[in-house]
Design a protein that fits this description.
The chain is α+β, with helices and mostly antiparallel strands. It contains 26 helices and 16 strands. A hairpin with a 2-residue loop joins strand 4 and strand 5. Helix 8 packs antiparallel against helix 22 and helix 13 crosses helix 17. The chain is flat, with a radius of gyration of 70 Å. The chain starts with a strand and ends with a strand.
Length: 994
């Protein structure tokens, strides 16, 4: 990496634009960056770091990058041109900027921006690569191979951190060297082996867990016959222990199965014998119960013998009465019909007049025919009565129409008589409204300009008062800003005059001075009364900035008020506001009057149209009423003539009744009652004759069946339910008698009855005990068989799992040995050195050798840096660094070096590190280094030797920038970059190395 050009604008202490030509400074190989304390020497290095990484070194983060000396309109910007990895690049970065708004008061925030360009030598022009912060950061980090912290440690080496690498522990050295020498692949190998070891261990542990789960299942199946091994998944020997315990459990289970088979066979034989004995006892007990029950049933039959004989006699009488049953049924039906017919005749005769009380069926029928004939003669009179009602209704309707038409004619004559006066009045209203509308339009044109002039005059008066007040406020703000600026400048000058006392307050015995580097402070400056510190100066600056902002705001408001006043005066003119208000009010009053008058135009037009339509409607109604009146006269005469004829005809037809309809209803009812009575009389006569015939047939049938009277035959008849019940009792008696005789005649039953009573309970208890013993033996045999089957299945699955885990376990052992060896935790790795540390140790050994070549020159051959792979305490080894003192011949830790020795030892180490990184394939070439302070701790001779070593770097086309304010370096180093501070900010002055 080689720096060419750095452009700084409004950054840190630099208020304006500054340029640093590193190409010219690097041509001398060694250049000096110097200036007074606080001028901004370190800010130049901060700008380089900010251009590359977008942030400053860690110790100076958190503050604002923008210069307090910069003008408000200038944006902070850093541009760095450099060559890295053979590519010439230009980086430009702008931090966030709170700039003044282009319009109005206040500020607005612009986001941070970045640009990356590359010089195309073939085209002779710069080519844009990216404007993304993330892409640019990733590109620069990849090209340099270092993070911001590593870059500051190896390239910038800032104040106070120069010896960090020399005094760092092995882990910190490993991280930095790993990035510089690209040893990440070895760390990846370690990680890959560790991941593979964990994955293999997880697979083996999973397999062992499954195997142990099967072992628990076998233990559960085998019971006490199997003992589980006291091992956890992943421990050696787990599989062998489980398989051995499983084999013992299987042998024990098979022995128990054989014993269970024998026990079950014996139990089956005992149960068979017990079941045979139980069957014989049950049969004997059944036959004895059968004989006893037969004897009891025979006794009950003997007790019911008399009732059985009565049932048989009653059944015989019922069979004889079955021949008389049809005659009985016919006689009952005839009697029922005659009784109903007689009741109907009595009801119908009760509704007839007394004149028909003794009339027979023939007389009643003749009277009904006469009433029907008279009813037929009234049909023509009924139609005439209906026509008469229609004539009366039509005559009433004509009278109502006549009265309505008279009202229509009267209303039409009255309304049409006033038509001409109504039309003239409406025409006058329309003409007046039209004139008012024309006048309102003319006044509306004059109304708006008058209102605008009145509003402009009001604004003009208000703005005139505001202008005077704002101008007074502007004068006061200007005076306040001038006084605040003078106050701030006075305090700043007082602080600069007493800055020595402020720096001396931070000194402590034994610590180097930030200005001269001395560790002794015999006479530090003291603060005097009224000393101005940094907080007082910043408060005065903030007060001045606030006052200046208030002045600018007041001037902007004054300009805006004056512009508005000029516009309002141009629009309103010179007329007074009261005069314009009076004119506008008069116009408004006249306009409202005209508008009110014009508002009735539409209503007048509508009213005229409505009354014209009403006139046409009333004229038409008048003509139609006259025509209807003429037609009604002829119709009324015809109706009166027809009505007279119908009334004479109806008076003859209805007789004494109120109407023809009433007379017809009377005749209809009389004819219906006579007809019904005649039919009831004939039915009563017929049913009486049928009842007489039925009695004669019943008496004959009873005599032939052997009964003395018909009543005796009727009593002997049984109903269906009684007949079925009697027959059932007879059949039951016969069946029971046959069954009892058969049971008492069986030889087996008679023989069993002669034996002693059977002991059924004892036999059942014996058989139940035998069955229980058989079930227990069968359950034991099934359990033993299931145990053997389950153990065989689980053992086979465990054997398969053991065979499957064998290659996984071997692979896990192999990977675990490699992983622990590369991680430095294996017993075979005596120095506990990781693989990456082993590789970095070789690189560190090269760095120590390269650093020794310069360290020997700087220390006049006294010191040599050597690499040590010894373990530090209980930690790991590989990245130790010691110094060999040629004067004593002893090797000691680098932490025992003095301040000056530590400086040139770490400087030699950093230069050696840069050489090795450059020579390393794929490494980063560090062509530019910066050394920030530390030279004040060297004596003159050592300083000469150090400068000779740094000057020799030009042989490898490398340059070193020394950041220091030691006066002796200005004489020794000709190429210089001076930072000069002032009230308006710092500036840089560059001098070449001629």
């Amino acid at each position: 990496m080689r720096l060419h050009r750095l452009d700084i604008t409004a950054f840190g202490p630099f208020g304006g634009a500054q340029r640093v030509d590193f190409g010219e400074l690097s041509a001398a190989g060694l250049f000096l960056l110097h200036g007074p304390t606080g001028a901004g020497k370190t800010s130049v290095l901060d700008a380089v770091c900010y251009a590359l990484y977008g942030s400053v070194p860690g110790a100076r983060q958190g503050g604002s990058l923008r210069s307090d000396h910069a003008a408000p309109g200038i944006r902070t910007e850093v541009t760095l041109e450099l060559t890295v990895a053979g590519r010439r690049l230009e980086l430009t970065r702008q931090p966030p900027w709170e700039r003044p708004k282009k319009r109005g008061a206040g500020t607005t925030l612009d986001k941070a921006q970045s640009w990356l360009r590359e010089y195309d030598a073939s085209a002779g022009a710069w080519k844009d690569l990216s404007r993304s912060h993330q892409e640019i950061g990733e590109e620069i980090t990849q090209l340099l191979g270092m993070s911001r912290e590593q870059f500051c440690q190896v390239v910038l080496l800032p104040q106070g951190d120069f010896a960090r690498f020399l005094r760092a522990d092995a882990e910190a050295r490993g991280k930095l060297l790993g990035r510089l020498f690209d040893t990440q692949r070895f760390a990846e190998v370690e990680k890959r082996l560790a991941d593979r070891r964990r994955a293999a261990e997880a697979e083996v542990r999973t397999g062992d867990t499954e195997l142990l789960a099967d072992a628990h299942r076998m233990h559960q199946a085998a019971g006490d016959a199997m003992e589980l091994p006291d091992l956890t998944p992943g421990e050696p020997g787990l599989a062998e222990a489980i398989m051995g315990a499983a084999a013992v459990a299987r042998c024990t289970a098979r022995e128990l199965l054989t014993i269970a088979h024998c026990a079950r066979a014996a139990a089956e034989s005992a149960q068979f014998a017990a079941d045979g004995a139980l069957a014989g006892v049950r049969e004997t007990a059944r036959l004895q119960r059968r004989f006893a029950e037969a004897r009891e049933r025979a006794g009950r039959l003997e007790e019911r013998a008399d009732a059985h004989r009565e049932d048989r006699a009653r059944m015989e009488r019922a069979r004889k009465a079955e021949a008389v049953a049809p005659a009985l049924e016919l006689r009952d039906v005839a009697e029922t019909e005659h009784r109903s017919a007689a009741d109907a005749e009595r009801r119908t005769r009760a509704l007839l007049p007394d004149a028909f009380a003794d009339a027979g069926a023939g007389g009643l029928a003749a009277a009904a025919r006469r009433a029907a004939e008279e009813l037929g003669g009234l049909e023509a009179a009924r139609r005439a009565e209906q026509r008469l009602a229609q004539l009366v209704a039509e005559r009433d309707r004509l009278d109502r129409q006549e009265r309505a038409d008279e009202d229509v004619l009267h209303d039409a004559e009255n309304w049409l008589g006033q038509w001409e006066a109504t039309r003239a009045e409406l025409q006058t209203r329309i003409e007046s409204a039209q004139e008012a509308a024309t006048k309102a339009e003319q006044l509306a044109v004059q109304r708006e300009p008058a209102q605008n002039r009145l509003r402009a005059a009001s604004r003009r008066d208000t703005l005139a008062r505001d202008t005077d007040e704002t101008q007074t406020h502007v004068l006061a703000a200007r005076e306040g800003a001038t006084e605040a600026r003078a106050r701030w400048l006075d305090l700043k000058e007082q602080r600069l005059n007493g800055i020595a006392a402020e720096l001396a307050a931070q000194l402590s015995d034994g610590d180097p001075c930030a200005v001269c580097g001395a560790t002794e402070h015999p006479a530090p400056a003291r603060k005097i009364a009224g000393h101005v510190d940094r907080d007082a100066e910043e408060r005065a600056l903030s007060a001045y900035q606030r006052a200046d902002e208030e002045r600018a705001d007041a001037e902007r408001r004054l300009g805006l008020v004056r512009e508005a006043l000029a516009a309002a005066t141009a629009e309103a003119g010179d007329a007074a506001t009261a005069e314009l208000a009076e004119q506008a009010g008069e116009l408004e009053r006249r306009y409202e009057e005209a508008r009110q008058g014009a508002s009735g135009l539409h209503a007048a037009h509508e009213e005229l149209r409505r009354v014209e339509q009403e006139r046409e409607r009333r004229s038409a109604a008048q003509q139609e009423a006259a025509l209807r009146t003429a037609a009604r006269v002829a119709r009324r005469d015809a109706l009166d003539h027809e009505r007279t004829a119908l009334e004479g005809e109806l008076a003859q037809a209805r007789g004494a009744a109120e109407s023809v309809a009433v007379r017809a209803a009377q005749l209809e009812r009389q004819a219906a009652l006579l007809t019904e009575a005649a039919e009831a009389a004939r039915a009563a006569e017929d049913t009486a004759q049928r009842l007489k015939d039925a009695d004669a047939r019943l008496a004959d049938a009873a005599y032939r069946a052997g009964f003395d009277t018909p009543r005796a035959a009727a009593d002997a008849v049984l109903g269906d339910a009684a007949h079925r019940e009697l027959q059932r009792r007879l059949d039951d008696w016969q069946s029971e008698e046959a069954a009892v005789r058969a049971a008492l005649a069986e030889p087996d039953t008679v023989a069993a009855a002669q034996q002693p009573p059977a002991d059924l309970a004892g036999a059942e208890e014996t058989a139940s005990a035998a069955a229980r013993r058989l079930r227990e033996a069968a359950s034991a045999r099934d359990a033993a068989e299931n145990r053997c089957t389950e153990l065989d299945r689980l053992s086979a699955r465990s054997a398969t799992a053991v065979r499957r885990l064998a290659p996984l376990r071997a692979a896990h052992d192999r990977v675990a040995r490699l992983a622990t060896l590369t991680a430095g935790t294996s017993a075979d790795n005596e120095r506990r050195m990781r693989l990456e540390s082993y590789v970095l140790a070789a690189r560190l050994e090269q760095v120590a050798a390269a650093a020794t070549a310069r360290l020997r020159r700087m220390s006049s051959g006294r010191y040599t840096l050597v690499h040590s792979d010894d373990r530090a305490g209980r930690g790991r080894s590989g990245l130790g660094l010691h110094v060999v003192d040629a004067w004593t011949g002893r090797e000691r830790d680098t932490a025992t070096l003095s301040g000056g020795e530590t400086f040139f030892a770490s400087l030699a180490l950093a230069l050696g590190l840069a050489d090795v990184v450059t020579d390393e394939a794929g490494g980063v070439r560090l062509d530019t280094l910066f050394i920030d302070e530390g030279f004040g701790s060297l004596d003159d001779q050592t300083l000469d030797e150090v400068l000779d070593v740094l000057d020799s770097l030009r042989e490898r086309d490398r340059s070193v920038g020394i950041v220091s304010h030691v006066p002796d370096l200005r004489r020794r180093i000709h190429a210089q970059l001076e930072v000069v501070k002032g009230r308006s900010g710092s500036v840089v002055r560059q001098r070449g190395g001629e």
